[in-house]
Amino acid sequence: MNDSQTIRAAAIQISPVLFSRDGTTEKVLQAIAKAAKAGVQLIVFPETFIPYYPYFSFVQPPVLMGQEHMRLYEEAVTVPGPVVDAVSRAARSYAMVVVLGVNERDHGSLYNTQLIFDADGTLLLKRRKITPTYHERMVWGQGDGSGLRVVETAVGKLGALACWEHYNPLARFALMAQHEQIHCAQFPGSLVGQIFADQIEVTIRHHALEAGCFVVNATGWLSPEQVGQITTDEKLQRVLSGGCNTAIIGPEGNHLCPPITEGEGMAIADLNFSLITKRKRMMDCVGHYSRPELLQLQVNLEAQTVMAESPDSNFLMAEIPLDPSLQPTP
């Protein structure tokens, strides 16, 4: 990527079609087509947008959420699978890099997964949230370090984290150390209220400043009718509001377009890569401002598995001579 090049990015604030993988996927495809008409080259969708974020787990006790958890299993995305194929075709058709959050089903487990598609439709990265937060631990399994990677795309070097992974400074530093140019952040939205929106603001602007990169952040949104579908308890409905802050931040920590804090919409901005060098000239946390002889990060980037083949699957037990005193008497 030429440091003087400019690309156009979009962060999408959008509501899912609750309880429908196919319906929400169709909204993704429509948003990609609409963004293409605006000249967008990179589009970022909210956290676990397909089929929908598991809001039920925030308002229901574990003993009561079995039915909704099972419904999420039924509507979850498999990788590879039809949803991946459809988004891949759209990315290729519009020559657009797509960052999409999904609930991924891998046999008997669900994961909070981020997918990065290149402009030719190639799935470059499938990463799983390394530590689900609080109520999410009843829904999703844990990811591993194989997803803490920056990938080279048609629009530059991309890294991605979901929600409170941004409060893990070592996870963020792992991406910074790989010189990400655009950081793609995803949050659920319509959760906890204004304080959550304020926290998102602080989080994404700080990462842009510290990493010297662009941050494209997408949050979801629920309509009042959808909140009523999730819970009829008016007290609980109040916690399924606010918390939306879809924004694009420059390397100097400034908004590059007006943020979206309510309703559906598309935040669009042009990213001029010369601003990265301008920021890092002053402070490069993984370059001239680092002190590797004092502070270093060690990270395991290997994918983990529950079963690994022995290096020598045909090994023989070693013959250990017995103590002569224990030999039977002839």
From TrEMBL:
<dbReference type="Pfam" id="PF00795">
    <property type="entry name" value="CN_hydrolase"/>
</dbReference>
<dbReference type="InterPro" id="IPR003010">
    <property type="entry name" value="C-N_Hydrolase"/>
</dbReference>
<feature type="domain" description="CN hydrolase">
    <location>
        <begin position="7"/>
        <end position="273"/>
    </location>
</feature>
<dbReference type="InterPro" id="IPR023919">
    <property type="entry name" value="Nitrilase"/>
</dbReference>
<protein>
    <submittedName>
        <fullName>Nit6803 family nitriliase</fullName>
    </submittedName>
</protein>
<comment type="similarity">
    <text>Belongs to the carbon-nitrogen hydrolase superfamily. Nitrilase family.</text>
</comment>
<dbReference type="InterPro" id="IPR000132">
    <property type="entry name" value="Nitrilase/CN_hydratase_CS"/>
</dbReference>
<dbReference type="InterPro" id="IPR044149">
    <property type="entry name" value="Nitrilases_CHs"/>
</dbReference>
<dbReference type="InterPro" id="IPR036526">
    <property type="entry name" value="C-N_Hydrolase_sf"/>
</dbReference>
